[in-house]
Amino acid sequence: MADSLPASESIDVSYVADLARLRLSPEEIATFQKQLGDVLGYVAQLKEVDVSHISLLGDADLKNRLRADEVRPSLSVEAALANAPKQENNLFVVPKIIE
Amino acid sequence: MDLTSLTIPELRKKLQSGELRSREIVDQLATRIGAVDPKLKAYLHLDADKARAAADAANPALPLGGVPIAIKDVINVQGDPCTCASKILQGYTAPYDATVITKLREAGAVLMGRTNMDEFAMGSSTENSSWGSTRNPWDLDRIPGGSSGGSAAAVGGHEAFAALGTDTGGSIRQPAALCSCVGLKPTYGRVSRYGMVAFASSLDQIGTFTKTVEEAALLLEIIAGYDPRDNTSIDRPVPKYTASFGQGVKGLKLGVPKEYFIEGIDPEVEKAVRAAIDEYKKQGAEIVEVSLPHTQYAVAVYYIIATAECSANLARFDGVRYGKRAQNPKDILDLYGRTRAEGFGAEVKRRIILGTYVLSSGYYDAYYNRAQKVRHMIAEDFRLAFEKCDALLTPTSPTPAFKLGERTQDPLQMYLADIFTIAVNLAGICGVSIPCGFTSNKLPIGLQIIGPKWGEETMLRVAHAYEQATPWHKEKPPL
To answer: Where residue B445 sits, what CATH number does that domain have?
Structure first.
């Protein structure tokens, strides 16, 4: 199956990793570039499918599920903070964001 | 007496008659785990004393009273670790119970052990676990399948009576096939996912690993049902799935999709599945050939939709509220970037990048929207096929278990391991894998039975009919 794949498509791994807030090493970028190129090449077969008659709107099965906005029992502050890497005064602590 | 090979109904009988106490079961299971798990590495975490305490408190009159159940490490059990086999959740303690766990507790189950998995359920071999690979109980040099490989190896290796897993593209059915157990993926919306760590929210579903079809039915009756805390769960009555067992398959139409018998399928797998189809014919089912013409696109569609959804779901792992945080961040972007770089393994990073890419400006229509449309066509294929038959019969996996390391450097080859299971998730329907034989070197082969939405009753009846006529599920691996 792999032989008939279209040529690799390009993906700017370094740029996309930045969007995803993932700091990659140069080695990882090079490896992923090649591997994801193969995957995108494989995925490119979807181009041959005629999807012009398909509409994703108006699926009869789908409707919104709403609920009353009421206070219900939930995690205590203590439990919610129990796994925090850093906390103080019932708050999560992060590095300074605004100068 | 070796209790670990008993089924849940057999255990319950002994518990209810007073012949056996739950604590003895837990003790024997702990001994078996102690002997076997150093080889299989199915468990990540086991607190036998906690299980013993729960066993002593269990009420044998309840449907699972005193029966130990293992849980995949992706489902929150209050007070237990829940790492999703990821370094980013090292040290995390679940602050609440998932709805399936609440239901198991209410049914009297003894929660015993967290099972290994591919990191965040991304993988087909359990080699993507940050805590080391699980081994196949039938051949320790081979993978157990994935992503729920720990649950499959534990049940297949008789170091768990049953286990919960999750199935996003085959993560229950494929490892069940490779470890010779029964793996059930219910219809999307049948089981609440509240408290399960999300991978791909339009595909994920919780399901079961058991030795027999009857046990799968019993467990599904307990974990299924509407949950206001999961808006994708559906408010529909839960049938008594075992009620139609024993009615056989006479009068049923079973479809064989020609696209599932492709070049590249292992000849021994094809032979075993063809023999299973013949068995159904012998039992009086009508076998009809059907076509699912968009089958070949399922893997491609899946790796766009699943990665897109995972890139959004895994954004929550940012080092702020729980889990790991990189040391001495110089600012918030440094904190995010390094926390995620240090916390996630290679496959998770690959999928986040692919998912971010297919959703990014300029590519969204070409990839994501197109994939959604083809997904719609795949679902339509099934809908039309089920107008001609009651259930479908296919292989679960194109090959038996492969060797550790064989596919780790080639993600695309790894992805193709799920070629027969992925479409079921895309269509939101149900599927079950049951043992249907062994290769000449004694590796398990699985038969997949696929049902339409909410078709679990007939699907399990079909599975049960085959199981009753064949010996495969009774075989125990030489551990």
So the answer is: 3.90.1300.10
